[in-house]
Design brief:
Helix content is 35%, strand content 26%. The strands form four sheets. Strands 1, 4, 5, 6, 7, 8, 9, 10 and 11 form a nine-stranded mixed sheet that branches. A seven-stranded mixed sheet has the order 13-20-18-17-14-15-16, sandwiched between helices. Helix 2 packs across helix 5 and helix 13 packs across helix 14. The longest helix has 18 residues. The chain starts with 5 loop residues before the first helix and ends with a helix.
Length: 464
């Protein structure tokens, strides 16, 4: 079996994150962000707390008694005494030699050599104006430590049919929306402890609209009457984003619905009788995913070897993209795909590159689509991309428009998959209606050969 795709891994990791609900879909989403530059007054972070610093600097300026230091700073003398004791321990302070005839109790503090150097270094650290780039999360309405390199134009997200998440407010980010404490917290979260922001003087914001790719996890009860959404940002479920999305209207506001699961295609009785059920397959996938996530040596033990006997088993909704990728990456002899619709979100540059690599390796490819004569659900750009590739490999690649087909079939080498899953349009559904898809995978040359020829004949009969 192939390695798990990112979506499939998310499905395994978070499948049981909602008690009593079933994970139905993992959907590409776009989190609105603003690229902001803050004009701040900042300084290098000092290695001593403020009271510790002031004690050293006052002693350096001839304020040499604990009582005098306490009076100037306006803090209790016991706090100064505790700080002085620590400085003695750290070899920053000592007592000056008393003058002749002076009362021994009137001892004055003085800096050691180490204390003098530290006082000079602390005095040299002064605030400067700097520009601090930030990514502002407009759903949380808060600056977050996102990598600016992951930000993409909103138009790109729209082209890829990502669900655009709402902003908490309209209008630009303002200076009062970002505090010095906010920026310091972000710097610490990024592991940057060398700078401290003292004041935010103003901000500027780029006018172009930007987003960060995210994932929405769609959960539903068996009756499909209750829908909950999880939001995955930077690979982790974000409770804060989930709450913000609920406030914005949740699934209803995004137009997300869940349909009842369609009937899966039934196999011939002899195959149906020995078919491994989905629950058992899902457990195996969870074991494999855990091994892949931890890079454990156990991965070899739980991986499924190529079967010596016919393999007849269920295939769940989240495994379909992985199986398709396996065909595009490793098929040696043939690939046949029938799907009612074709979407640009699937026929990407990466998809075409993998498909062309199979063609260059001598693999025969047949792809057919078509639901109704005047159907408009397929993307013209995706169709044109496949037509162009077929034109370059006329002897190896047949791309066909059918009059009408309900078939959802994948055949590659000795594998045949029949399912209710739309192989070439499972992303980018503007209707935002999701459902659990289930099919059957048969890894057996005899059955794959028979079905391959059957579907080639079907394509020949229905080709427009």
């Amino acid at each position: 079996m192939p390695d798990f795709s990112p979506d499939s891994l998310l499905a395994v990791r978070f499948d049981d994150a909602r008690s009593g609900l079933e994970l139905v879909a993992v959907v590409d989403a776009a989190l609105p962000v603003a690229l902001v530059t803050a004009d701040v007054l900042a300084q290098d972070r000092k290695r001593l707390p403020l009271l510790d610093e002031f004690v050293l600097r006052l002693v350096n300026n001839k304020v040499t008694t604990e009582q005098a230091i306490s009076g100037l700073l306006g803090v209790p003398e016991r706090m100064v005494t505790q700080t002085v004791a620590q400085h003695f321990s750290d070899d920053y302070l000592t007592y000056a030699r008393p003058l002749a005839g002076a009362d021994p109790a009137d001892r004055n503090l003085r800096l050691t050599g180490r204390g003098e150097q530290t006082a000079r270094e602390l005095a040299a650290i002064t605030p400067v104006r700097v520009e601090q780039p930030l990514v502002y999360d407009q759903l949380l309405w808060k600056a977050r430590p996102y990598d600016r390199h992951t930000v993409i134009p909103r138009g790109q997200a729209e082209e890829q049919d990502m669900i655009l998440l709402p902003a908490a407010k309209s209008g630009p980010v303002e200076s009062g929306d970002i505090s010095a404490a906010d920026i310091n917290a972000l710097l610490r979260e990024r592991g940057n402890n060398d700078r401290e922001v003292l004041q935010v003087r103003g901000i500027t914001q780029t006018r172009a609209r930007r987003v960060i790719p995210a994932k929405i996890l769609v959960y539903s009860n068996p009756d499909r009457t209750d829908i909950e959404l999880g939001v995955v940002v930077d690979g982790e479920l974000s409770h804060a984003h989930e709450l913000a999305l609920i406030t914005a209207g949740g699934a209803k506001a995004l137009g997300i619905t869940v349909e009842p699961a369609p009937e899966r295609p039934i196999l011939e009785p002899d195959l149906e009788q020995v078919r491994v059920p989905l629950s058992e397959v899902t457990q195996r996938r969870a074991e494999r995913a855990a091994a892949q996530l931890t890079s454990s040596p156990l991965s070899a033990a739980v991986s499924e070897p190529a079967p010596a006997e016919p393999e007849i088993r269920a295939i769940g909704v989240f495994e379909h993209p992985d199986v398709l990728d396996e065909a595009l990456t490793h098929a040696q002899n043939r690939i046949l795909v029938i799907s009612p619709w074709i979407k640009q979100a699937i026929i990407t540059i990466e998809f075409l590159s993998k498909l062309e690599n199979r063609l260059r390796s001598g693999v025969r490819v047949d792809i057919a689509y078509g639901y109704e004569e005047n159907d408009t659900k397929s993307d013209p750009i995706a169709i044109r991309r496949l037509e162009n590739l077929a034109a370059r490999y006329p002897d190896k690649f047949a791309f066909s428009r059918l009059r009408s087909t309900h078939a959802k079939v994948l055949v590659f080498d000795d594998v045949w998959v029949t399912t209710s899953f739309n192989w070439l349009s499972f992303k980018g559904d503007r209707n935002r209606s999701y459902r659990m898809e289930e099919g059957s995978l048969i890894h057996d040359k005899k059955h794959a050969d028979a079905k391959y020829q059957r579907y080639l004949d079907l394509i020949g009969q229905q080709r427009q």
